[in-house]
Each structure stands twice: as structure tokens, then as C-alpha cells.
From TrEMBL:
Residues 10-128 form the NIF system FeS cluster assembly NifU N-terminal domain. PANTHER family: IRON-SULFUR CLUSTER ASSEMBLY ENZYME NIFU HOMOLOG (PTHR10093). One of its GO terms (molecular function) is iron ion binding. InterPro entries: NIF_FeS_clus_asmbl_NifU_N. Belongs to the NifU family. One of its GO terms (biological process) is iron-sulfur cluster assembly. It comes from the Bacteria. This is SUF system NifU family Fe-S cluster assembly protein. CDD domains: IscU_like.
Length: 145
């Protein structure tokens, strides 16, 4: 597949998550709630997580923001559901590294999240893509203390 076709596919994946977000809403009985915003662009997120027996059993988000921010939140909630806290935090670190333009392990299947790797070419948009991930890190780190 050529670079242009791959780039177009990634854009389609991002727009699909933006227009049809997965896990949008709030958990009524969320064990963790985190509110964060990006003051430079106005993106904001309200993240709720259920953590049971050291695993993220459910994750939902609400908020407002650009397509990258909201698509990333959708992808993140899908990625961490069912994962133990350590794995979810490791995934967040891998995502952060990817946003800095660094490689990630070949054996790690990021699924739709790979569509966001092009954001690393636009430094002003990295904060948009990482907002939901930072919220998840904050919530899980505070829960683990």
C-alpha cells in the first residue's frame, strides 16, 4: 500500500472514531473520575473508569475537542478495557513515545491507535492526541497509591 493510501486510511480511521466514538458517555458508578483540559486549544475530557481487581473493567469519556482529541479518547477507552493497570499504563507510555516519533515494539498490536502516529509530525497537535491518555494515567496512578 502506498504512503498516500495509508495516510488516507489513517484519516478515515480517525474520522470514524470522531464521528462514531466508542465508549462516549459517563459511567454512573465509575470508581475513578478525571477531568482534564488543554488550555491552548480548548479540548476538554471527562473520563470515568471502573477498576476492579486491578483491571480496568469499563472506561467512558465525555468532552469537547478536535477530531484528533476525541478520536484518541475513543481509541484509548477501547484499548484499556480489560487490561490490568500496569498494562494500561505501559500502553500509555508506548503511545506517548509514538507521539514523540519513536518506534514501538513490532510485536505490539496497537490496532486503530496506529492511525494517530502521523500526529507526531505536527507538534501543536500532540497535546490533543495525548489528553485522554494523560487523564487515564492520572486516574490510574492516583488509584494505585
Amino acid at each position: 500500500m502506498s504512503f498516500n493510501n495509508l495516510d488516507q486510511l489513517y484519516r478515515q480511521v480517525i474520522m470514524d472514531h470522531y464521528k462514531n466514538p466508542r465508549n462516549k458517555g459517563q459511567l454512573e458508578d465509575g470508581t475513578l473520575t478525571v477531568d482534564m483540559n488543554n488550555p491552548t486549544c480548548g479540548d476538554r475530557i471527562h473520563l470515568t473508569l471502573n477498576v476492579e481487581d486491578g483491571k480496568v473493567s469499563a472506561a467512558k469519556f465525555d468532552g469537547e475537542g478536535c477530531s484528533i482529541s476525541m478520536a484518541s479518547a475513543s481509541m484509548m477507552t477501547q484499548a484499556v478495557k480489560g487490561k490490568d493497570i500496569e498494562t494500561a499504563l505501559k500502553l500509555s507510555q508506548v503511545f506517548s513515545d509514538m507521539m514523540q516519533g519513536n518506534d514501538y515494539p513490532d510485536d505490539l498490536d496497537l490496532g486503530d491507535i496506529e492511525a494517530l502516529q502521523g500526529v507526531s509530525k505536527f507538534p501543536a497537535r500532540i497535546k490533543c492526541a495525548t489528553l485522554a491518555w494523560k487523564a487515564m494515567e492520572k486516574g490510574l496512578s492516583e488509584d494505585g497509591k
